[in-house]
Specification:
This protein is α/β, with parallel strands linked by helices. Helices cover about 50% and strands about 15% of the residues. The N and C termini lie far apart (about 40 Å).
Length: about 170
């Protein structure tokens, strides 16, 4: 009888922990709890917007061609427009906005992030939770990064600008 209670209690504790995580993340919904005006603007103007902002659609077309979900493509295109990134590089450190897809391996990803930091370009690492190794690599990248980073679970954004070292998990 005691074992049944223990198993029930463990399952309850796991479910309670999952609900607690959802409530902790809920405070960031609609930008509440974000104390950075830059990141608050991202949340309001990029992550919460479902339609494309007016501007160039080259990034939208490139990401659509590789099969990314439309919602994420719209968010990244809106980020490029909102932040004023006129050029981009897909799986390479070129332009003002570098995007690393799942195909970029660990060593190549570190080199891309390093090169982008030297250039002052922003980086979007797609699928940061795709595998355990990729998740650990992204944690390492965030710990070494010297400016603001934003993790919204679909991609990790690394900004190489004048902002202080902060990490936001949305």
């Amino acid at each position: 009888m005691k074992n049944l209670r223990h198993r029930f209690g463990a399952g309850f504790a796991e479910r309670f922990a999952a609900v607690k995580i959802r409530f902790v993340r809920a405070r960031y919904f609609r930008g509440h709890g974000v104390h950075s005006p830059f990141v608050y603007g991202l949340v309001r103007e990029v992550f919460m917007r479902s339609e494309l902002l007016p501007g160039d659609r080259a990034l939208f077309r490139a990401l659509s061609e590789i099969g990314m979900p439309e919602r994420r493509v719209v968010q990244l295109q809106n980020l490029a427009i909102h932040a004023g990134y006129g050029t981009f590089g897909l799986n390479r450190a070129e332009g003002a906005f570098c995007i690393a897809t799942r195909e970029v391996s660990g060593a190549d990803l570190l080199a891309l992030v390093q090169r982008a930091a030297e250039m002052g370009a922003a980086v979007a690492v797609l699928d940061p939770y795709g595998s355990r190794e990729r998740q650990m690599l992204c944690r390492r990248i965030v710990s070494m990064h010297c400016s603001t980073s934003v993790d919204n679970r679909a991609y990790l954004l690394l900004f190489n600008n004048h902002l202080p070292k902060q990490h936001f998990v949305l």
